[in-house]
Amino acid sequence: MSTTTLLIHDGSAAPDAPVTRIGGLPLAPAGTRWPTCTTCSGPLQFIAQLVLDGGRGVLAVFMCANDPGSCQEWSATAGGNRAYLFPPTGLVPVPLPALPTSEDEDDGGDGGDDEDEDDGDHDEDDEDVRQLGAVRTVRAVAVAEPQYRAASKAWSERSGRPTRHVLGQLGGAPDWLQNDETPDCPDCGGPMEFVARLEEGPDPLTAPNFGSGSAYAHACEPCGRAAFLWQC
User: Is 224 helix (H, G, I), strand (E, B) or coil?
Assistant: First the structure.
């Protein structure tokens, strides 16, 4: 029987830990700038990094949280999210950009290109649109079930932990919630390889906003390209 590799919630870590994790700071080549949304120009929220096996690289995904639903952050091509396939070594934390201010929003300004820290105008009670509320580490567990949902249920029964602790799937075939939306590589035009499925997870503090659905990360390794989308 074929197996499904699940991504399991496995505790917390430092925000810049060089491991597969949800949240924290992205690791990227030195000089990488924090990406911005092509619709609202605000800084994207860092969602996750996936350290791929065999030295294949590190996949990082971002999504707009500035005005959820307005920037089509669910689409692989609309510009409301971004995915990158970085080399496996020589990566450093990307500095946090300044938070958008009310003036940025009124003027349509770009709040994401300034790599300075918070300018002090942000209310501490407001949600940080750049980062999730905490860091969750991930452990890969192979389950002898060919289908993602069956594998999640089997793992839950075997471990005694709830299925909401399954944070997704690594490799294999995507179990789409809707239609197959495999993105094409913008360079070679071929379909991108499925890398991972991501879930919102057990804790609202660390939950990306996938509309109570699931996200899908893809990559074209020969071209060094990646893409990200979600369905609900």
Answer: coil
Tokens of 32: 């990488």
| CB contact set of 2 (below 8 Å; sequence gap of 6+) | 146
CA separation for the pair 49, 65 (Å, rounded): 17
Q: How far is CA 162 from CA 3, 129, 166, 214, in A?
A: 20, 28, 8, 17
Residue 164, SS3 per DSSP: helix
CA dihedral 32→227→78→108, nearest 10 degrees, is: -20
Residue 69 banded pLDDT, cuts 50, 70, 90? confident
Q: Strands 214-220 and 91-93: what pairing? A: unpaired
> 9-52 pLDDT, tens per residue?
999 999 999 999 999 999 999 999 999 999 999 999 999 999 99
> Is residue 45 helix, strand or coil?
strand
**Collapsing DSSP states into helix, strand and coil, what is residue 102?**
helix
* 3-state secondary structure (DSSP) of residue 59: strand
Supply the pLDDT for residue 204.
83
**pTM for the whole thing?**
0.88
Which pLDDT score is estimated for 104?
54
Residue pair 40/71 in contact (Cβ under 8 Å)? The answer is yes
* DSSP H helices in 34-186: 102-107, 148-159
Average pLDDT over residues 108-119: 44
